[in-house]
Protein 1
Amino acid sequence: MIILIDQDGTLADFIGGFTEKWAAKYPEKTCISPEHYLSPRVLDHYSDEPREIVESIYSSPGFIFGLSPIEGGIEAVKEMAGIGYDVRICTAPLGLYKNCIVEKYAWVEKYLGQEFVKKVIMTKDKTLIKGDVLIDDSFQKGMLIPSWEHMVFDRPYNRDLSGIRLNGWKNWKDALHLLRDVYPQKS
Amino acid sequence: MIILIDQDGTLADFIGGFTEKWAAKYPEKTCISPEHYLSPRVLDHYSDEPREIVESIYSSPGFIFGLSPIEGGIEAVKEMAGIGYDVRICTAPLGLYKNCIVEKYAWVEKYLGQEFVKKVIMTKDKTLIKGDVLIDDSFQKGMLIPSWEHMVFDRPYNRDLSGIRLNGWKNWKDALHLLRDVYPQKS
C-alpha cells in the first residue's frame, strides 16, 4: 500500500508558522488566528495587505525549515513506515520556490531522517502520482483522475471537503481501516 | 499524451559540465572524455579519486544551473508543448541535494520559462509517476511497474538499454511515431 502524505498543513504547521512570524513582525496589524481560516491559502486572509509583504514572510530563508511539525505526524509517518507501508511525502513547491524547495527536503531530513529524503515527491500536480491514498489538508484538481483516494487531514478550513477524514494524527490507524472497508481494493 | 522528460543527461549536459569543470580545476589529473563513459554515473569513472573531490564539483553552487542544454532539447520540449502534448520534466535530485534542487528548477525556468516550473516533478523513483513515455538517458528500477514506456535518449554509455531509442533531439517526432506504432494504446 502506497501512502502519499502532504507536507504543508498536514505534517508541517505552515499557517501556525506564518501567524507567529506575522504577529511578531507586524504587531500593529490585524492577525488572523489559524482556527478562523476559511481556506488553506494564507493570502486569502490578508487580501487587504500588499501581497508582497505577506509573501515575504513565507518565502524568507528559514521559514519552511523552521516550521513546527503538526502534533503526532512525525510519529505516525515513522510508525507507518515501520509497519511496512510505502510512505511518500508528496508536496507542491510554492510559486516563490527559491528557498522553499530545498528547505522542504531539509525539513524532511531533520524530522524523518536521511532515508526519507529519497521518498519526497515534489510536484504541483499530485494527480500524476500513483498511490492508494493521499493524506492532505487540501485538494487541488490536476490533469488526471487520481489513482489515490483523498483522505482529508482535518483542519478548520476544510470541513467542506468530502472523503474519509483524519481527525488528528493519533487516529491514523482507524482512518486507514475505514478507508480499506470502503475501498477494499486499496488493501 | 503525457511525455515525461528527464533533465540531467537528457536535457542538461551534466557529464559535459563535469568534464569541463574537472579539467579546469585539476589539469594534472586524468580526465575521462564524455564519449568514453560506460555509465551515466560520473563517480564510476573516477573511482581512483577521493569521492569527496569528485562530488564537490557537481554539488557546488552554480554547477547545475550552469549546465549547457543538450542540442535541440529545449526546442523539442517547446515544440511538443506547443503541439499540445502534456510535457513534464521528471528528474531525480542528487543525494547531495542542497544546491542541486533549486538549481534544477531555476534551470528549467531559465530555458523553458516560468510556466514550465509548474511542470517539474522531482522524484527519486520515476515508476511512481504516471505518463505514456519517459525520455531518459538511463533507467532506474523502482517500486512499481512503470505505466510509461522508456524511450532511451541515446548516449555512448547506454547502448545496452533496450527500448525505442531517440538518437538526438532532432529526431523526436520520428521516435514518437515509432512508439505509437509499437504501442498504439499510447496515442
Protein 2
Amino acid sequence: MGEFELIERFFKTPAQTQAKAQLTTIALGIGDDCALIQPAPGTQIAISSDMLVEGRHFFADVDPNALGHKALAVNLSDLAAMGAEPLGFTLALALPPERARDEAWLAAFSGGLLALANAHHCPLIGGDTTAGPLNLCITVFGQLPVGQALRRDGAHAGDDIWVSGTLGDARLALGVLRGEWMLPPDVMAAARQRLERPTPRLALGVALRGMASACADVSDGLAGDLGHILKASSVGAEIEASMGAHLTAAGAFPSLAGGRFHSETLLQLALTGGDDYELVFTAPAAARRAVQSAAERATTPVTRVGRIVEQPGLRLIEANGQPTPLEARAFDHFD
Amino acid sequence: MGEFELIERFFKTPAQTQAKAQLTTIALGIGDDCALIQPAPGTQIAISSDMLVEGRHFFADVDPNALGHKALAVNLSDLAAMGAEPLGFTLALALPPERARDEAWLAAFSGGLLALANAHHCPLIGGDTTAGPLNLCITVFGQLPVGQALRRDGAHAGDDIWVSGTLGDARLALGVLRGEWMLPPDVMAAARQRLERPTPRLALGVALRGMASACADVSDGLAGDLGHILKASSVGAEIEASMGAHLTAAGAFPSLAGGRFHSETLLQLALTGGDDYELVFTAPAAARRAVQSAAERATTPVTRVGRIVEQPGLRLIEANGQPTPLEARAFDHFD
C-alpha cells in the first residue's frame, strides 16, 4: 500500500468533522505542499508537537484504537493548557512494514485518532508517512484571542493552586502492566482507562481564560509540571499532604482500602506519577467561586490543592501544619 | 543529559535569529505548553511536516551537520513551493541513548540545523525530545498574503512548465553511496552536495507569487511531482526529451562524457531520481519574460522544459517531434 492509498483509506477526515471544523480558518488541507490556516482577526495560533515512540510511550501490544486516541489526546492537552480551541493537526507516521500491511491495526488506530478529532472538530490537515520503527509525531494547532493565552509565568503569591480531574491513576495502571504491583480488578479497569484514554481538558482551558493566572498540563506528575509554573513565575508553592487520597480516582474505591496504596502512596502517585493530562492552574483566591462555576460550565471537576507563596520551592503541608520540602519526604521510590 | 538541558545546550535559537525573526508574529516560543503565532492581518499560515528516519532517509554515518541542514531544508522546500516566507519550526527528535550522550554529534547536528534556520530568520519555537530509534520530525510554519499561495491545481493547457536549478544529481550521488555505480570525483563532489545540502528555493517561491499558475517541490522526481500538478489541475504535459543533459548539474561536467551517463540516463535521473528540492511550476506563455526576471531577482536559475496540454498524462517529445507516453519509454530501472 502506497502512502497516498494509506492516507485515502485510513486517514481521510470524516465529512462531519470537515463540516464542523472552522473551515474559514483551514483554507487548504491535505493534498498540496503545505496546509493553509487563516486565523480569524484578533486571534493567535497555538502550536504543540509530541512524539510517541513504541516501547517508550506505549507497549507494542497496546490496543491500536486507544493508541490513536492517546496520540492526539496528549497534544490536545497542550492546547487545553493554553486555553486554545483546536483547529486541526498534522500526523507524521513511521510504520514498520508489518504494520503498514496490517489493515486491522491501521483501521483501529485511525478509528481511535479520528473519533477524538471528530469530537473536537479538529481535522487532519497534513503530515507525512514513511517506513521505519513505529513512531507517531502529531503537531496540533489551536486558536485563541490575542492576549488570553494561559501561560506558565503569571502565578502570584497568594494564588490558589487547582487541579482538574484525578492524578496518579495512569501510573497506578502502568505499575500493573509492568508487573510492579497488583490492583483489584475494578480499580485496574478505571486506572487503565486513565492511562490509555486520557481526556484533554479543552472546555476547562477555554473557561479559565481571563481567570487562571497560570496553567500547565500534567504530563510528568504534579510536582514536575507545577514546578514549571513556579520556575516561570519565580514563586513557590505549598500543597496539602492530606490531598493524596482525594487526588486519585483509585482512592475512592473501597476495594483499595487497607493495602499498600494508602494516602501517602496515593499522594506520591499524584505528585510524580505522570501521564495524567489534567490541568494544574493558579488563580487569585478572590476568584474561587468563579473558578468553580467555570469548572461547572466545562463539566470538569476541579480540586483546590494548595497555594502559591513567595518562597521558592515546593513544600508539603503536613497534618500538623508544618511545611516539608518535597525532596525531604521519604517516599518509596517506584520510578 | 535531560530534555531541558539538551534543548538549552544545543537547540537554543541564536540571538541573531531571534532578532531578525518576525517577532511580532512569534508571540511565544519554547518554554510553555504551546508556541504562539500571531499572523499579520491579511496573511495565511502555511504548514508542512516531514519525518526523517535513519536508514531510510539518511545513512547512520551521515555527516550530522549535513543531516541538520537537510532535515530543515526539505521542510523549507515545501514552504517555497507554496510561495510562503518562513516564520519558525518545531522539532520532535527521538534519539537513541548513544546519540543523546554524543555531544559532538549533537553539536554538529544542531549546528547544521540552526545555521540554515538563521539564514532564513526561522527560529525553533517548540517541539519534543524523547528516547527511541533516531527519528527527526520537523513541522515548519510560513506566512503568505491571503489568496497568493502557489497551489497545485491551477495549471492550464498552454502554460509553460519550468524547473529551478538542476534535477537528478542527488540520485546520482546516492547511487555511488549505495555501490550502484561510480562517478568521477569532481562530479561526485558536486552531486553529493546536492544530496546532502539541498537548497530550499524560498526566494523563487516568493518571486513567483501571482505569476506561477501551479507549483510543487521536486522531492520524488520531476515525473512524480509534476504528476501531482497534472492530477490536481486535470491536465497533461509534454516534456522535451532533449532536456536530459541540461537538467542535471552532472551533465555539464566534461569528466562525465562518454560513460553510462549519457543524455538518456540523465533524463531518467531528472524524471525519477528525486531528493532534489527544486521547484517545478507552470506559468502562462505570455509570462515568460516575467518568470525570467523573477528568477533573476531570486538569483535562482530556471529552465523551461515543456508545456501543459489538455490531454491527460505525461509524454516525452522525442528529437523527431513525436510524443511518447512516459510509461512506454524503455528506461533502465535503477530504483
